[in-house]
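Build the 3D complex.
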Amino acid sequence: MTRQDDTFLDDILAQARSQQPTPSQDLIARVLADAAAEQAAILTPIAAPVSRGQRFFDILGGWTGFGGLITAGMAGIWIGLAPQVPLESLAAGEAVDTIALNLWPEDSLFDVSVETDG
Amino acid sequence: MAVLAAAGASFGLANCHGFALPIAISPMKAAHDTFEPASDEALLVAFANGDEVAAKELTTRFLPRVLAQAIRMLSDAGEAEDVAQEAMMRLWKIAPDWRQGEAQVTTWLYRVVANLCTDRLRKRRGGVGLDDIAEPPDPTPGVEAQMLHRSRLTALTDALAQLPERQAQAVSLRHLEGLGNPEIAQIMGISVRSVESLTARGKRALAELMAGRETELGFGHD
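Done.
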């Protein structure tokens, strides 16, 4: 490297070093827009990952749906386990007159025979 | 904690003075008035806590120097703006995780810009340099001088692109940014002796690449 090469290079380096650009308004606006977007992202809470159990719970309708399901289940168990009580025993001790109730009329509706003279 | 407290104090001060964040009327000036005494790290904490004024102050402090470093290394205004925007974007992203007291923001930014610029210089290798494209003659006085100036800077950038990346970074930080060897060592994460070696070899290689172009670049005629 000769002294002339050195001077030549130093001269160009000095020219490059002397550049003092001023950021354009457009660039400042872009940088501030990036900053605002990044701030919004930083401040937005990240949703915690939902577990499989929680997802199933949500499918059932949350606490409301789950409460209804539990009630219906308990009712089913109670109906299933409770001993059968005959109907007579329900009426036992009650002073009830036995009433015969004929739900079918004496005269058949379909009896369409026509009485004829002679 | 002290830094956090300082940041909190600045943040509170900004709000209790009721800044309305003027958009059209010099927002940079308002930011400057508010955060002038705050450290760079305190500003980053305030930024991460959602303070818009801190973002403006950080932009005022760092964007000009980031852009200048990029344009000195690349000699291309458009590319330099892209690099500056990207470097600032990385600053915004790292703000919540910034480790207090480990590095200076300026040192970190020098490294980021140097890396982004050498990435772009690497892509230029093998391409046609701007000074290889024939410029149409322009009779306007002064234009020729401007073109010569641009040609010189582009020739320098093209030569820088031919250097190994570490050499290009060391040379640019030493001879374009004017930094001292200890600071360059900190930026590049190497010893001062390695910096001396890199800058010496880099500058020698640069001179060899530029050798013989004196006449073409009008050296000695201005």
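Residues 50-80 of chain A form one domain.
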